[in-house]
Design goal:
30 strands, alpha+beta, cell projection, Methylamine Dehydrogenase, Chain H, Dynein_IC, WD repeat, four-stranded antiparallel beta sheet, Dynein axonemal intermediate chain 4, elongated, 718 residues
Length: 718
Amino acid sequence: MASEGRPVRRGGLVGIQGPLQVFDEDGKNVTPHPLFQSDPNTATPRTYGSSSTWISNKSTTKSGLEGTAEPGSGQDPTLSLSAVQVGQEEMEEELTEADLDQRVDIYLSETDTLWMFDMPSVMVSVEAEDAGRVLERNKIYADICKTKAGSERFEERMVQTLAGAAKNKEVQCETIIMEDKGMMVTSWDLDNSLDASEIEPTSRAEGFGATTGGSSKSPTTKEQEQTVSVSSDRESAVPVRSQEEEKCHSEAILTSENLKQDLVIMERILMENIFQPKLAAYRQIPVLIEPDITSDRGDTATASEEDEEEEHDKEKKDEGKEGKGLIDPSMTINKTPEEDAAPRLEQLWSYTCDLTSGHSVSSMAWNKVNPDLLAIGYREFDSKDQKKGLACCWSLKNPMWPERIFQCDHGVTAVDFSLASPNLLAVGTSSGSVAVYDVRSRNDAAFLDSSASLNKHTGAVWQLRWVEQERGATEGDKKERLMCISADGRVTEWLIQQRLDCIDLMKLRRTEREKKKLPGEKERKSEAPISQQAAGMCFDFHPEDTDIYLAGTDEGHIYQCSCSGKEQILGTYRGHKGPVYRVAWNPSSTDMFLSCSADWSTILWHRDSQTPLLTFSSVTAFVHDIMWSPKSAFIFAAVKESRVEIWDLSVSIFNPVISHTANPEANLTSILFAKNTNCLLLGDSLGGVGVWELFNLDAPGSNKVGTLHDIVCPVGAV
């Protein structure tokens, strides 16, 4: 780089070979230090920049060369301040005006760039050449992140380092010795100790002084008087608040939840001890017999047991006489083995208490998960007297008092447990309301209620049922639904949401009966019915296809309906002359069903025939309830006022195998078979539910037929 010639000031630049140095007017070295300092220990020193100045004057150049060390030499290239000053003085003496006016060429060069820190940018301009490639990579990465969630191709795994070997440390100490110490005190001692801290010392001194007044008495007498006087003084000073605190404390103990729970457990233990033989017979396990403890009282104990057995046998004989009026009394004294093997009923116990007495049992239902839990609905036997109803949950652990009691404003007419949620109990009442209770809660308030529903029933809900139906788009998608039939002629499905609301599946219409016209009789105008809808009394869903159900009405008609279409009636069965109280599909032969009515008859139907196959009528009495046995397709039970009848169609289709009077003072209202045992439950109009054991129901001499169809078809053909 060349510059125009201009005079150089003294103390300015010095033209020498090697590093450029700058001096000010005072001769001080103001040369900038380099940014990079070379390591003095390195073998080869480096020079990062140089500038040279050539001056035509020889003396100047010579003096400059003499005062400066070459880069290749071993001397320090940096001149000291004293050397620079000496060279400057020599230059000032030797330079002339001609030398100063001479033109000087200065050449500047730059050193290489040193990168101390390099941080490349993550941003790319849109106008750059690589912008398209970067955008495409970003898009691919975003798609991978989206498809990673829930994909089977990506897995997240954790790696854990091996833990070090565990070390066990043991500490040995001396044996800890424990001692039990106790003392017995009475309530008087506690009161005295409490009062002693509150009585003033002066009063206590006066009391002691009064007791030690007589000196002629013996020491024992003095001590007794002191004790009596102190205790009387303390008793007189008992404050009123201590008695109140004691009373509040005792009330808190009696009302505590822990005490109630402990009492419930104790009560169950006592009940299981009392009812152990009967519970063992119910569960079909051997009955434990208590051994004789003393030999002296063995004779009296055996005698008392024999007396009790004789009385029990007499009661059985009396019941047998009442149940079978055609049996000769002489035959009951000496029974043959064949008669002992005859089917019979024996009562084990009865679910009844003071709370349920005076109510009529309207319905019963087992819990579908816990077979020991039974729900019973109660209502007043006289429908004119509208009193409150009850829904109670009884357990085998305590046959004398219910586990849960739910008070209802109206009589309970139907109960049923849910299968999907076994803790939910649906209850229907005579006012048409439907409620769902949670039996796990001790609160008797309803979990859900239909009181706020605008489409609730206006008549009594005679029957309700939890039903599993497939109505989803995919097969196997079953959902449990609550179905009801009411006296207002509607079959409804209840939707369980934040509140109970229902939709109508079917409205039962009344049908006009054809009257025979006598010869010569004029035609009369038909009278319009008061209500266009027939009252629904009962229903039952098909055990295999739950979209099909039967509905019985107060006209005596039975309708076969379908849930798939609204107002769809598949068939009508006319055979009863009174209200139909119950219909029941056969659990094994699913094309057969039974119906009972107030016309004293029980009819067996076939699904494809509108003509009755068999009619069972043994006693002129209302048939309130019927039920098929869960263990046999040939056996069913029916209750007729105060009698219960057990029919075995494989033995006889004309007479029941068992006809027994359960309670002469009450009418039987409902019947229910036990699930896993040979027992039968009978509810009556006085609020009792008797548990009866069935003996020898499958007669050994009877020839069983393959199916119920083999028995019915020949009879139906005739």
